[in-house]
Input
Amino acid sequence: MAEIPSLLNKSLSFIQRNLIVLGVVLFFTILGYGYFITHWAVDSDSVMATFRSYNFDWISHGRPIDALYNYLSLEQVLPFFNDFIAVNFIFISGILWLIVIENCQVKLSKTLSIVFACIFIICPMYSFFLRFTLQNIFTEFSMLVCVLSAYHFSSFLNTKKFFNFISSIILCSLALMSYQTYVAYFITSAVFIVLLRTIANPDEKFNVLELIYGGFILIVALFIYKIVCIASFFITPQSDYTEQFIGWGSQPLTSIISGWKVYFHSLLSMNFNFFILLTVYFTLPFLVIINILKKRISVALLIIIFVLSPFALVFALGNGVPLRTLQAVPLMLAGVWLVFYNSFSSKAIKTIITTAIIIITLFNAQYITRLFYSDVMRLQYDKNFANRIYNNILDKTGDAIESKPLVIIGKYYHTPKPFIVHFDSIGPSFFDTDAEQSVRLHNFMSWLGNDYIMPSQTEVNEAYKVSDHMPTYPNTGYIKETKDLIVLKLADRVVVNPLPIDLNIKNLNQLSLSKIQSNIEFIKQENNGLNISGWSYIKNKDAANTKIYIRITNDDSSKIYPVNIKQRPDISRLYNDASNIQDSGWSITFTNNPLQKDSRIDLILVNGSEYIETNIPKKIQPIALNLTEYKELSYTSQRSYVDTLSYNNNILTIAGWGYMKHKDALNTKIYIKLHNADHDYIFKANRTSKNSIQELSSDTLNVKQSGFSLVNKYPLLTGRYRIFLILVNQDTYVTADTGLSIDNT
Output
C-alpha cells in the first residue's frame, strides 16, 4: 500500500519542479477547450437524455460503471459540469503520463515535458469524445483510470511487486467497465512503456516478457469485465449495438481489407488531422529507418507496433470503428514525438522541434474551437429549420398536429452551410438521418416545444405510399394532410441494398426503344459500393404509373432490383411527351458492389401490360474535336467543378458543372478529355441542371443549365489519364485542367 503515497509524493514533487510546464500547458488547455466548456450544443445522443438518461441503457451496452455514475447524477445530463470535469481529466491524465514516463527511466526536461503534454492534451481527436456530453465524463475518467493502471504496470516492471500487478489489473478492468474500447488504450500504454524501457536499456534488448506481462494483465482484466457484465445482464438484456462493427465472419477478406483502406484514408484526409499525417509520413519513417540503420531492430519493431496499437479494435473487429473510440491516438502521437525528440542530442534541433510543436499546438487549439463552433452553428441551423417546418405545418393543417401522427420522410443536410462540418459525433443534424420514427428527432422537437404524435410502422408505410408523388422541401406541396396522417417530405426516400424480386415480363408487350426517354446521370463505384442514378419514362405514358427496375447479370446470376423513385421537376420542364414526368427520376444503391468486369446492366420500365428493356450504360465512342479555327480563352474565363469521378469495371462516370463567364450556359458545349502521353480520348458530355450554381454567377445567362454528366462503358487502353474539361461556346473555347486523374493500369 506504500505505493499510493509514493505516487502522491511523485506527483507533488513533479508539480513543484515543473510549474512553468504546468502553466504553459494550462494556457493551451484553456485556449483549446474554453469555448467548448462554455458553449453546449445538444446532439443526437444527449437529446435522448434531455428528459432522462436511463441506467438500463448503460448496463445493456456493457458499461456498468457508467450506469452507477448516471444513477448518482440522478439520470440527468449536466453540460457545463460534465464538460469541465472531462477536460480536467484529460489535463490530469497528461500530467500523470509524464510521471509514468519518468517511472520508465526517461529523463524529462522542461521542454520535453511541454512537447509531450501539449501534443497529448491539445489534440482535436478529443473533440469526438467530449461532444458526447452524455458520457464524456465517463470516457475521460476511464482514461485517467487507465493511465493509473499503466503507472502500476510500469512500477511492477521496476519492482516486481505483486501489489502493482494486482492494482494494474483492477484499474484496467474498471476502465473497461466504463468503456470497452479502452482495450486499445491499455495495449497502446503497455507497448509505449516497453518501448521507453527498451530505449533506456543500454543493451536495447526487446523484452518480450514485459509485453507478456502486459498481455496477461489485459486478459485477466477482460475476464473480470466479462464476469461483471454477465451478472449485470441478468438485470437487463445485452444490447446488440456492437455487433454492427464486427466484420470477421460477415464479410469476405477482400471487403474487410477494402474497408480498412477507406477507413484510414478518411482518417488521414480530414483537414484537422495534418499532425497525424506529419507523424505517419515523416516522424515514423525517420524513427524506423534510423533505428534499423543503428541495428536496433527491436526498437524499430516496437515503434511500428506502438503506432498501430490505437487501432487494435479496427483490426480485431475487421471493421472501422467510430472516431470517438480512438482514445489512444493522442497518446500515440505524443509518444512518437517524445521518442523523436530524444533521438537528437543537438540543442538547436530540439529547440526547432519545441518551437514547431508550440506552433502546431496553437493550430490544434484553433481546430478544436472550430469543431465545437461548427456544432454550435449546426444546432442553430437545426433550431431554425425545425421551427420553420413546424410553423409551416401549423399554417397548412391548423390544429390537426394535435390529433394526427406526423410522418417526416427523407433527410435534410446543413453541410453546405457556412461553418458546418460533419465528422463522427461533430456536426450530425437531427434531420440528416431517416426521421420517420426517430425518437431523437421527436425528443429534439419536443425540447423546442414543437410537439407532435409519433407514427406507428403501419402509419409510416401508409405515408410512404402518399409521399411517392409528393414534391420535396421546399417546393410547394411538401406537406400533405390525409384523413389519418400528416406527411412532411424533406427528400425522396432511399432504400439501400434492395432485395431482388421475381419479375415476369414474358406475357407483356415489348415496346420499341424509340418509345423510351432516359438518361443515366452517374454510375458511381467507390468505397466498395455502387450507386446508379438517372431518369427514365415511356413516351405518351403516365410516368407516375411506370415501374422501373434494374437487372444486373453476371456470369453466374441474373437479378432484378426495384429502384428508388426521385422527384425530377427539372426534367418535366424540358420534355412534354408524357404525363407526370416529374416522377421519372430514380436511383439504386448498394453498399457491396454487385458489378463485375463483364457485368451487364439492363434498365426495365413497366407500364400496365407494356414494357421496355434497354442496356445501360451505352458505349459512347470518342470523337475528334477540331478547334484550330476557334479562339482559345484563358483558364480564368471559366468556372468548373467535378463532383463525381470513377472508372471501374470499364465504366467511366464523371459529373459536375462548368460554364464560361459572360456566355450563355445554354449555348455552351462541354467535352471530357482523357489525356496521357500515349492516348487521348474526347467524349461529349450530357447537359444537366444545377440549381445550386445560381448563386455563383450573376453575369452568366442560364447558369442553372451548367451541369454535365458522362456515363460510358468504354474499355480504355492501359494507362493513367489526366482529366480535362473543354468548354466550347460559338467560336471560342477554354480548356480546364480538373487536377483529377483515373488509373487504368
